[in-house]
Specification:
This protein has about 260 residues and is an alpha/beta fold. The chain has helices spanning about 55-60, 80-85, 100-110, 115-130, 145-160, 175-195, 205-210, 245-260; strands at about 10-20, 25-40, 40-45, 70-75, 85-90, 165-170, 195-200, 215, 225-230. The protein has two domains: about 5-85 and about 160-260, P-loop containing nucleotide triphosphate hydrolases (Rossmann fold, 3-Layer(aba) Sandwich), CATH 3.40.50.300; about 95-160, no CATH class. The protein is built from eight helices and nine strands. Helix 3 packs parallel to helix 5, helix 4 packs across helix 5 (about 145-160) and helix 7 (about 205-210) crosses helix 8. The mean pLDDT is about 90.
Length: about 260
């Protein structure tokens, strides 16, 4: 297989380390992380709590800053990529303002970026359709279920049409039935938009179901113990989770987590 060219590499990490200085001494969150994410990939980061997967996602988004190594996003530094609005970010909680309608919440970053009213209206309409919330723009967050609120949060991150979507356990607080439905919808949205997605999760089935690449991380200091290229087809009905291919990948993820965790699992 031909190595990816510079134009194909969306996220590049070269020996990235990140240490937090605290009153109790240094906390080594990431150590010597090397990773290449190509355009259009769906990459999940999985590992135990405190392994640095969210820290790494936040570093990509310039919300944290590596203390060693280099990190590039679309050929720029993370800070430059943030200023260029190269990514949308979806947090664990939907984070919608209760006094704004759903459409008003989605419009907020567009207002800050100075879009015209007509363009804002068009973008809000389009992203509401993308996340299957057409007709809910005039509702308030409290009038929507948890799953619908999270879809609205995804719509807000998609509104300015960034190439990259970063998602930090967006479905972790939802029940399994809703989570399955949103996993299906997210795969459909990814197929329609062709965006590059970085996705943090604690769930092995979720990581295997969604991803073209699964990055397995060790406990602190966070290191990558395995990078698994998924053999599954892009079109994935939920019942693919019962196939031998799916189960084999899930076993490899579990083995990677055990290997990085010593005898604790």
């Amino acid at each position: 297989m031909q190595a990816p060219g510079p134009a194909d590499v969306v996220i590049g990490a070269d020996n990235v380390s990140l240490t937090f200085q605290t009153n109790d001494g240094p906390v080594h969150a990431l150590k010597d992380v090397n990773l290449t994410v190509e355009r259009g990939e769906f990459v999940s980061f999985i590992g135990p709590s405190g392994c640095g997967k969210t820290t790494f996602l936040r570093a990509i988004a310039a919300l944290e800053h590596p203390t060693g190594g280099t990190l590039s996003v679309n050929g720029m530094t993370p800070d430059e990529a943030r200023r260029a609005r190269a990514y949308g970010y979806v947090f664990q909680a939907a984070g919608l303002y209760p006094w704004r309608t759903i459409a008003g919440n989605i419009r907020l970053p567009l207002e800050i970026m100075g879009y015209s009213k007509s363009e804002m209206d068009e973008r809000v309409k389009n992203v509401l359709e993308l996340v299957e919330l057409s007709g809910f723009g005039k509702k308030y967050p409290w009038q929507l279920s948890g799953g619908m609120q999270q879809r609205a949060s995804i719509a807000r991150a998609l509104a300015f049409d960034a190439d990259i979507l970063l998602m930090d356990e967006p479905f972790g607080a939802l029940d399994e039935i809703v989570r399955d439905r949103l996993n299906e919808e997210l795969l459909s949205l990814w197929a329609r938009t062709g965006k590059t997605i970085g996705f943090v999760t604690h769930s092995i089935p979720e990581a295997v179901y969604l991803s073209t690449k699964i990055v397995v991380m060790s406990p602190r200091p966070g290191r990558i113990t395995d990078v698994i290229e998924s053999p599954l087809p892009k079109e994935r009905p939920l019942d693919i989770r019962d196939t031998p291919e799916f189960i084999e990948v899930a076993h490899r993820v579990r083995d990677g987590l055990r290997a990085g965790h010593g005898d604790e699992l």
